[in-house]
Amino acid sequence: MTTDQPNGLPIHNGVPIPNDAPPKPRPTTSSTSLTARLRLPTTYTTLPSQCLSAYQSFVRHNSSQVTSIESALRSLTYLLPGTRVADTPLTSESLHTFLSLLTAYNTHLLASPPYTPQRRYERFWEAGSTVYARCAALLRTVQYTQLLLEMLAKRAGEKTRWRVVVLLEVVKAVCRLCMGRVSGSRPVIATGVGDERTERGVDARHAEDAEAEDGAPGVAGEGEGGWKMPRTGMRLPSLPCASSSSTEPIATGESVADFLTSRAITADEIKSARRLVRRLHTLPGQLAELLYVLQPALYALALQRCGADRRDWRPWLLGLSMEMAARQLGRADVEDSVVGGARGLSGVEREEMKRRGWGLAWWGMRGAFYENVTGGVVRGVAGRLKGKPLLDMVGVVVEDYDFLWGEYYFPTATL
């Protein structure tokens, strides 16, 4: 107990306390970690991070082997979509989805400059906007998992299946609209797995490592790996042998013109990432992009309204007309607003227009057109190939994919 003396000094348990005495320390609440409060061994909590670090190190040091394994496993999933074994489509698609997500993660680990112009454009907007980066990540994830989600939803009934299909298409449309808004009314460029694993990126890095291992240090001269500069130690690649005739074979298998062309800098490589895709200033261009983005969602909604009638032509005609209108409006916008027309577009935009043009061919495998026209042709071809040596395997694979194209929506989706 503390009291006060007449001279003003406090007394604690009969002992006077001087004024210059240090203050009594206050009890502090001990901040213990969750691991200590749960009394978990530290080894168990650090094991996941250690395994992840070990996996990342393995992928970075064995990129070529990892890529070969991914390709082999993905090729195996392409051969297992059929109905000969119970739940084979679901099992095959589950494996394919897992491999797609794993490949996307490995691609992120192995990404290294120089990037392709398309990937450089995407990385520019992902680094500058959190909304763009999150929408792009969500869009890729939905594209990888959409068929698997449709298969799982179909087990709960057709109504649940079409609700899931429409929901996924709406999510993808919203993501594309947000990405186009953030980028300043620019078209959304389609992405795929492995875009960052360019030959000039990962493969060039391994080539440099191989040259560093093959080249003997301290030797300046001309050898199999080229000529090593004595001052800097850098190694120049060997030039191909020039021949008098362009058709005459040369020692390196590459002509001088091809050698120089492969190392020339293109216009897309020196452009800033923002200028690789133009802004849509005119109304036809903006309307074309809006129709192209909303077309899958409206087509899926029309299929949901038609229900079990797969031979109804109305959803198919609606979707095809919207995509054709978007393509015509886009062409008109290019001819009016771009100097030189399609030739004035960047390589990224030309590749996107070409991809969208080939996407029109998938309308021959969708909806009423497949049920009334294409499906009979596919089944007839599969039937003729059956029972013939070597061709029987091809017929079985065609028949299996006929099951996917006829029963599910997303195998023929292009967005």
UniProtKB/TrEMBL annotation:
The keyword Protease does not apply. GO terms for cellular component: peroxisomal membrane. InterPro entries: Pex16 (IPR013919). Residues 194-209 have a biased composition (Basic and acidic residues). Its main location: membrane. One of its GO terms (biological process) is peroxisome organization. It is found in: Peroxisome membrane. Residues 1-33, 193-229 are annotated as: Disordered. Belongs to the peroxin-16 family. This is Peroxisomal membrane protein PEX16. It comes from Imshaugia aleurites. The gene is PEX16.
